[in-house]
Write a structure and sequence with these properties.
By secondary structure, the chain is an alpha/beta fold. It contains nine helices and ten strands.
Length: about 250
C-alpha cells in the first residue's frame, strides 16, 4: 500500500510540470466535472491535484462509478464535461447518441486479476479454483466492463462461475474481499496494486484474453470545452501516461 502511494506521489510531482491549461482558455475559477470508471480513482485523483495546482482557481470534481452506470446517467442528461470509460462499449453508447465531442481517445489498458484476502483462506491459485464448491467469489455485473471481461475469461476457460454476488463496480467487488465477505473477487490488476497489503493478487493466464481499453472524451454539452480538452490532453499525454503506468495501467 505504501509503495503504491509513493509511486502516485512521485507521479503527481512529475505531472505538475506539464499540465497547465492553454493560455487564455479562461480556465481559472471554473469547475470541471469528470465522470470516470471506478478503477481510475487513484490515478485520476493524482492527475487532477496536479492539474489544479498548475491552474489556480480551477476545480475538478469526480463521479467515480461503473462505466455502464455513468453512461446511463449521461444519456439521461446528467451534467458533465469529460467521460472516461473502462471499455469502448459504454463510450460507444455516447458516441452513437452524439453526446461526445469528436472521436474518443484511447489512453490506457487494464486486465483482470484475482484478489484474495492476505491469508488466502480458500487456497485460490487459479481461475478454475473460483468454481470450486464452497469458494465464495464475487464478480462485476455483466454490463460493467470488468464483468464483461469476466464473461470473456469464462468463455476462454470453459468454466462457469457461481458468484455469491455481482457488483455494479470493480471497487465494490474489492470491498467484498477486503471486508472478508468473499474468498476471492475478480478485479483489475490496478485495483490489487491500489489495495496494497489488504489483498493478495492471484494472476491467471486467461486474463490476457480479456484486456480492456479505456477511452476518454469531452461531453458535447460541456460549458468548459477548452478546459476539458486541456484535462484530456494531460491524461493522454506523457504526464498522464506516467501516473497511469505507475498505477499499473498499460498503454493502448
Amino acid at each position: 500500500m505504501k509503495a503504491a502511494a509513493l509511486l502516485l506521489a512521485v507521479s503527481l510531482a512529475a505531472v505538475l510540470a506539464g499540465c497547465a491549461a492553454p493560455a487564455g482558455d479562461g480556465g481559472a475559477g471554473k469547475t470541471l466535472t469528470v465522470f470516470a470508471a471506478a478503477s481510475l480513482k487513484a490515478p485520476f485523483t493524482a492527475i487532477a491535484a496536479a492539474f489544479e495546482a498548475k491552474n489556480p482557481g480551477t476545480k475538478i470534481t469526480f463521479s467515480f462509478a461503473g462505466s455502464s452506470d455513468l453512461a446511463t446517467q449521461l444519456t439521461q442528461g446528467a451534467p458533465a464535461d469529460v467521460f472516461a470509460s473502462a471499455d469502448a462499449k459504454n463510450m460507444a453508447k455516447l458516441s452513437d447518441a452524439s453526446l461526445v465531442e469528436g472521436a474518443p481517445e484511447d489512453f490506457a489498458t487494464n486486465m483482470l486479476a484475482i484478489a484474495v484476502p492476505p491469508a488466502n483462506p480458500a487456497s485460490v491459485s487459479s481461475f478454475a479454483d473460483l468454481a470450486r464448491p464452497g469458494v465464495k467469489v464475487v464478480i462485476c455485473a455483466s454490463q460493467v466492463p470488468c464483468g464483461a471481461a469476466t464473461k470473456t475469461a469464462e468463455k476462454e476457460t470453459g468454466i462457469t462461475l457461481k458468484p455469491i454476488s455481482e457488483e455494479s463496480s470493480v471497487t465494490d467487488v474489492l470491498g467484498k474481499v477486503t471486508s472478508g465477505e468473499a474468498d476471492a473477487g475478480l478485479v483489475y490488476v490496478t485495483d490489487v496494486r491500489t489495495a496494497g497489503d489488504k489483498v493478495r493478487e492471484v494472476p491467471f493466464p486467461e486474463a490476457a484474453t480479456a484486456v480492456n481499453t479505456y477511452p476518454i472524451a469531452a461531453v458535447r454539452t460541456s460549458k468548459n470545452k477548452e478546459l476539458a480538452a486541456a484535462f484530456i490532453a494531460t491524461v493522454t499525454g506523457p504526464e498522464g501516461k506516467k501516473v497511469l503506468g505507475d498505477a499499473g495501467f498499460g498503454t493502448p
